[in-house]
């Protein structure tokens, strides 16, 4: 079996494609033949040493593939099932192991028509967008919200899920091409970052938005806070521009009894029932055509270094996927 392996922390060039041992499924685990691998920023943080990992290191938590074996005690899966997960390890490989609890079988009818790369693009960004749309804030049909990075992987999915719920979405994006993608996903307006606060106020008749979904962080935080209506909610779910510095909570009072939360995905997958509910709604949206997952770029698994370079340049839209 071949896999991507880094012997030390560093730039994308440390990622090498070479032979390694075939993994074995232990009790409660599935052995999966990889069909597609989702590439995420956490992979680059681990590779570069920003996050501490043990070397030699094979990146990857997200992938789709076919079950080819399983360990003792596994139920609910059969050889040949298409599964997807964001809770595996070492998925930059031709085969990987994942706990049965952390994998989800794609429904048979959907699996027959769902490309493997789309199945691999679903878990991390799909589940993140789902908890943001359904659980992290309380926008109601008819409300207007602001979604930053509307052409990114999460932004595109989140926009579609919110629009499906009758919510008006304004997005930001950095180029005309990205704004066009965001509009195609259902955004009523997609605007440049420059002066976005004033523009959002104009688009809401001076009232402001019910919710801001901000994965950018430091560069957009202050202006985003000023776009909220009275009793508006701020959902800070990332920091692609850097982390938000400590701030005076009294600003929330002065802004109109505002609320702010800093959620993360793991806290919204606390039970098997919650995980099943979120995946079911995503699968249903894919099945009925109200959700379109954009795979922006695909690379051969052997070219993982090139994929990391593309992702870190922030020139990509949608999902970056590796194909073994």
From TrEMBL:
<protein>
    <submittedName>
        <fullName>Quinone oxidoreductase</fullName>
    </submittedName>
</protein>
<dbReference type="InterPro" id="IPR013149">
    <property type="entry name" value="ADH-like_C"/>
</dbReference>
<keyword id="KW-0560">Oxidoreductase</keyword>
<feature type="domain" description="Enoyl reductase (ER)">
    <location>
        <begin position="10"/>
        <end position="322"/>
    </location>
</feature>
<keyword id="KW-0521">NADP</keyword>
<dbReference type="Pfam" id="PF08240">
    <property type="entry name" value="ADH_N"/>
</dbReference>
<dbReference type="InterPro" id="IPR047618">
    <property type="entry name" value="QOR-like"/>
</dbReference>
<dbReference type="GO" id="GO:0003960">
    <property type="term" value="F:quinone reductase (NADPH) activity"/>
</dbReference>
<dbReference type="GO" id="GO:0035925">
    <property type="term" value="F:mRNA 3'-UTR AU-rich region binding"/>
</dbReference>
<dbReference type="InterPro" id="IPR020843">
    <property type="entry name" value="ER"/>
</dbReference>
<dbReference type="InterPro" id="IPR036291">
    <property type="entry name" value="NAD(P)-bd_dom_sf"/>
</dbReference>
<dbReference type="GO" id="GO:0070402">
    <property type="term" value="F:NADPH binding"/>
</dbReference>
<dbReference type="Pfam" id="PF00107">
    <property type="entry name" value="ADH_zinc_N"/>
</dbReference>
<dbReference type="GO" id="GO:0005829">
    <property type="term" value="C:cytosol"/>
</dbReference>
<dbReference type="InterPro" id="IPR011032">
    <property type="entry name" value="GroES-like_sf"/>
</dbReference>
<dbReference type="InterPro" id="IPR013154">
    <property type="entry name" value="ADH-like_N"/>
</dbReference>
């Amino acid at each position: 079996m071949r896999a991507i392996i880094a012997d030390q922390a560093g730039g994308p060039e440390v990622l090498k494609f070479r032979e390694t041992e075939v993994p074995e499924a232990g009790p409660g685990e599935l052995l999966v033949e990889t069909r597609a691998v989702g590439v995420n920023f956490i992979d680059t943080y681990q590779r570069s040493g920003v996050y501490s990992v043990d070397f030699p290191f094979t990146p990857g938590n997200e992938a789709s593939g076919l079950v080819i074996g399983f360990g003792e005690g596994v139920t609910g899966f059969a050889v040949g099932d298409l599964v997807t997960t964001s809770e595996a390890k070492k998925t930059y490989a031709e085969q990987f192991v994942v706990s049965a609890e952390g994998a989800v079988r794609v429904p048979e009818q959907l699996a027959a028509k769902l490309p493997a790369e789309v199945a691999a693009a679903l878990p991390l960004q799909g589940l993140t967008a789902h908890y943001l749309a359904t659980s992290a804030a309380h926008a109601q049909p008819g409300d207007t919200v602001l979604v930053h990075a509307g052409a990114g992987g999460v932004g595109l999915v989140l926009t579609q899920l919110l629009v499906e719920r009758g919510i008006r979405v304004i997005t930001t994006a950095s180029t005309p091409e990205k704004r066009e993608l965001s509009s195609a996903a259902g955004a009523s307006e997609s605007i440049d970052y420059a002066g976005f606060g004033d523009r959002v106020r104009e688009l809401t008749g001076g009232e402001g938005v019910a919710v801001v979904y901000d994965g950018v962080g430091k560069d957009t935080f202050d202006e985003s806070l000023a776009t909220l209506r009275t009793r508006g909610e701020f959902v800070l779910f990332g920091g692609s521009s850097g982390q938000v510095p400590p701030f005076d909570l009294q600003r929330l009072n002065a802004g109109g009894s505002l609320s702010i939360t800093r959620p993360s995905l793991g806290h919204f997958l606390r039970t098997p029932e919650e995980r099943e509910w979120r995946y079911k709604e995503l699968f249903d949206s894919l099945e009925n055509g109200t959700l379109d997952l954009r795979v922006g770029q695909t690379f051969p698994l052997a070219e993982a270094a090139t994929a990391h370079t593309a992702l870190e340049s922030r020139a990509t839209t949608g999902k970056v996927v590796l194909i073994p």
